[in-house]
């Protein structure tokens, strides 16, 4: 979550003036931002499923380091 927020801040704060490739750089940054959002939503979906798993709960309860 921290890296996602940092990248969103970075993309929104910096409007570079690199010359003729400005559009390509801006488009690339937006595509990276979209990819990060998609990855985050997919991971969030699987983490929610994992939290509902009884096997995961049992593994956490029985893990020696967490006692």
Helix content: over 70%
- Sheet with the most strands? none
Give the averaged pLDDT, no decimals: 78
Taken together, the total number of domains comes to 1
Structural class: mainly alpha
Number of helices: 3
Model regions low in confidence, pLDDT < 50 over at least 5 residues: none
**Terminal-residue CA separation:** 28 Å
Global outline: elongated
Strand content: under 5%
Computed Rg: 19 Å
Query: Got a strand count?
Result: 0
**Succession of helices and strands:** HHH
What would the keywords be for this entry?
elongated, 3 helices, 0% strand, 76% helix, mainly alpha, 67 residues
What are the SSEs and their pairings?
Blueprint: H1 2-13, H2 22-51, H3 54-62
Helix pairs in contact: 1-2
Overview of this protein structure:
This protein is mainly α and 67 residues long. The chain has one domain (2-66). The protein has 3 helices and no strands. The chain has helices at 2-13, 22-51, 54-62. The two termini are 28 Å apart.
Compose a concise summary of this entry:
This protein has 67 residues and is mainly α. It has one domain. It contains three helices and no strands.
């Amino acid at each position: 979550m921290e890296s996602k927020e940092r990248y969103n801040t970075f993309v929104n704060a910096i409007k570079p003036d690199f010359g003729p490739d400005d559009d390509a750089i801006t488009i690339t940054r937006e595509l990276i931002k979209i990819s990060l959002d998609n990855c985050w939503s997919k991971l969030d979906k699987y983490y929610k499923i994992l939290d509902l798993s009884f096997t995961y709960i049992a593994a956490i309860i029985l893990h020696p380091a967490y006692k």
